Amino acid sequence: MISHAAVPIAEHLEGDQFRIYFSARDAANRSSTGWLVADLSRPREILDLARKPVIAPGALGTFDDSGAMATWLTSDGDRRLLWYIGWNLGVTVPFRNSIGLAVSRNGGPFERFAEGPILDRSLFEPHFCASCCVLRDGGLWRNWYLSTVGWKCIEGRVEYRCHIKYAESADSVAWRRTGEVAIDFQSPGEDVISRPSVLRNTDGWRMWYSHRGDRYRIGYARSEDGRAWTRCDNEVGIDVSPGEWDGEMIEYPFVFEHEGRQYMLYNGNGFGLAGFGLAVWEA
């Protein structure tokens, strides 16, 4: 763990204490997922810190041999399902991402569900997929995930363009992907929409996500059914803090509720190089 604390996820332990998973990079710039424990009443204190990764890069040649970055955690009875972004270095493009799954049973350690990815490039999605939010809704599993629509070369740099799509599953493993778009681009200058975080309450479905034109910001959308979304980015309630650790960009939100309050974990400058922060919604 040399640098970065990216794509944070909160898991409730007891009282006001949460385990926060995040990905860090080693000296070779590979990503692994670890955790820390914090108390929401005094979140600047680190109460405990993982001594080894929850999940580390996979075997040589596998989809995650360059990094394993947790992106979502779903509880299902005695199982905890940790969805993670596995990535490889590229040649014609800088990298390729896929979505993997690690499973913990009865509070035990996370183990890979398989050596291969759960979601990857497909016949109708020829570019990579990445950060996802997976929720169980009765007998149906719902998945909102990053889907790349293409790459382009800009002033000698190769950049990707992606938005958020939607898929369903009966078992959380085999996903029906029809190409349904959940959050789409608002303008030609918007290149990235990523890291969805979805909550459902009596008012319907709500989603927070990253979006980037010139710099990353956090967006917000509403839905009545979790499928047809209306973007309401001006209602997100958070922006950059000039001159601070999150003064240039804010991205990768994870929104959760605790004791009647709504919290957001998020990254700031440098895609997690500056660490992650905690925001509280003020009604």
Order of strands side by side in the largest beta sheet?
1-2-3-4
Helix content: under 10%
State the domain count: 1
Taken as a percent bin, the fraction of beta residues is over 45%
Mean model confidence by pLDDT: 96
Query: Which CATH class applies here?
Result: Mainly Beta
- Give the second-level CATH assignment, the architecture: 5 Propeller
Distance linking N and C termini: 37 Å
Uncertain segments of ≥5 residues (pLDDT<50)? none
Overall geometry: globular
Tell me the Rg in angstroms. 18 Å
Classified in CATH, the superfamily is Glycosyl hydrolase domain, family 43
Number of strand segments: 19
Overview of this structure, please?
The chain is mostly beta strands and 283 residues long. It has one domain (58-280): Tachylectin-2, Chain A, CATH 2.115.10.20. 0% of the residues lie in helices and 57% in strands. The protein contains no helices and 19 strands. The chain has strands at residues 3-14, 17-25, 31-39, 48-49, 67-76, 79-89, 95-105, 111-112, 129-137, 140-154, 157-169, 175-183, 192-201, 204-212, 216-223, 229-231, 251-258, 261-267, 276-280. It has a 4-stranded antiparallel beta sheet with strand order 1-2-3-4, with no helix packed on it. The chain has a 4-stranded antiparallel beta sheet with strand order 5-6-7-8, with no helix packed on it. Strands 9-10-11-12 form a 4-stranded antiparallel beta sheet, with no helix packed on it. The model has no long low-confidence stretch (mean pLDDT 96).
